[in-house]
Amino acid sequence: MKLNEIIPWGRTLEEYQLMFNLSPANLELKILGCGDGPASFNAEMTALGHSVISVDPIYQLSGEQIKQRVQNTYESVVSQVRQNSDRYVWNRFQNADELGQSRWATMERFLLDYEAGKVESRYQYQSLPNLEFDDHQFELGLCSHLLFSYSEHLSLDFHLDSIT
Ligand SMILES: C[S@@+](CC[C@H](N)C(=O)[O-])C[C@H]1O[C@@H](n2cnc3c(N)ncnc32)[C@H](O)[C@@H]1O
Known about the structure:
9% strand; globular
């Protein structure tokens, strides 16, 4: 997969649970999602009564602009997955198109929640490594498909500062 930039590409609550091995007790914590982008994690968690604040530089954009950015990314990502499909484990999706459709549905779920979430400060325009929160404001920090995924774009210092 060759990506020229960090792409807006989002996953669901269930995928976050699987990626981070989140237990029911973990879901009750005050969670900070770093680089949640167009994931539906915050929307789904909020609907279930849980507490998540997501930070991402794309939250400076309108919902329509984010949708446009996902649209611009879509064909490049899905076609690269299709071309390299033998290098993926297909136990969750059958093929690249099903994966793409799922990502698109996830973004639509996110967009339905985006305006309300901005008003409630659940989607904040902030960027790693410097975040404007109080110490101990959160009990769990999550970050998927940003740190360690873009080592050509983000330096070692950026990684260390973000984790710190
Ligand atoms: C591939 S998406 C991952 C979205 C989500 N975490 C997921 O796994 O579904 C990467 C996200 O990182 C965001 N991002 C890029 N630079 C960032 C930074 N310095 N701080 C926080 N987020 C950043 C991008 O805008 C993008 O939405």
